[in-house]
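Subject: Protein record for review, amino acid sequence with backbone structure tokens
Why sent: The fold of this protein is of interest and is recorded here as tokens.
Enclosed: The protein record, placed directly beneath this head.
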Amino acid sequence: MKPVTTFTIVTAFALASGLYAGDPAMCGAAGTAKATPIHADQPSGGKSSVQRSAEEFAAQLAPERQSDLLILLNEADEARLLTIDGIAATRVAAIIAARPIGSLSELVAIKGIGLTTFKRILAHDQHTIESAAVDATAGMESQTKR
């Protein structure tokens, strides 16, 4: 039988009182599992205010524009991503490491990308994105003609 420790009692109280959200089975006497604090800016859905704001900004874009940006973020090489205003090499590396990116709002979960950078990415020149898509298509066509 394991001895009851102060950690066990405090953890049990915190879980029972709703101070922490988590799986009670994951909280052992050794204290190796960490419970996740419930913050005021995170409703029961678990999304932060930054995440909700990012979703709102992304929803304002036309579906085609969202798709173009997702293609850019998921398929562009490092040099191409560096053309986005406010994106430096460290953020480019983080974006590439986070691939595949399923939705634009996922960007704010990447270290170094907050709402300001997120808005810059959304505002990235549409013409530049379209010309990159045309270049990629032309490159594929020239390879098939060989």
User: Anything to note?
Assistant: The mean pLDDT is 73. The chain has seven helices and two strands. Residues 6-37 form one domain. The beta strands are 20-21, 36-37.
